[in-house]
Amino acid sequence: MKKIYGLLGKNIGYSFSRGYFSEKFEKENLDCEYNNFDLAKIEDLKEVINNPNIKGLNVTIPYKEEVISYLDNLDPIAKEIGAVNVIKLEKNHTLTGYNSDYYGFTESLIPLLNPTIKKALILGTGGASKAIAFALDRLEISHTFVSRNPDFNELSYNDLDEDTINSYKLIINCTPLGTHPNTENCPNIPYEYITKNHILYDLIYNPDQTTFMKKGAQQGAKVSNGLQMLILQAEKAWEIWNT
What's the predicted TM-score (pTM) here? Predict the structure, then answer.
């Protein structure tokens, strides 16, 4: 019986995961398939998990937080983060939620860091940004969220002046701005204050160089897209499903 894995999300025709895992299954000669489960609403998850051949699921926008109430168990790290991107279907048919985003981000960020990086700006406040904040806490890098509708302790984009940009040397884009096909878009930050001491990290992987990254690179900053993070979180998901 072929094992089925898949991705839960909404409007996910672009899915990195399906391409990555389909290639992996073929290369490693595994009797598995990977499907996109494009759900109009999270309630439709019940229908997906009724298939006894489904062994594991990834979760993407916009369900990383909503899916939690449909799970039987939460890994302690996923519970602390408050977002899930991996679901394991246990042998007793219960669902356990995990977060491998934080792992993928941490492992892909560490090679870029230098000792001057003490503070980070996280652009966006969705499910992905929670895993990023958790990872930064573990790396002992303090962080501040930037939002179009800031809550207490968050900054608005209008607050980002030269002093702010100077004191936050790591800037992480957790918004979808700049994703294919709208590649000319980018977060509205004052790029003119970016320096060669900055790192601009974009969770987007398509295109491989976003406008956010290009504008940072023009100022001499070190830039990275989210591809390495995606590969690492996918491999971590595979490990979770198979242990």
Answer: 0.92
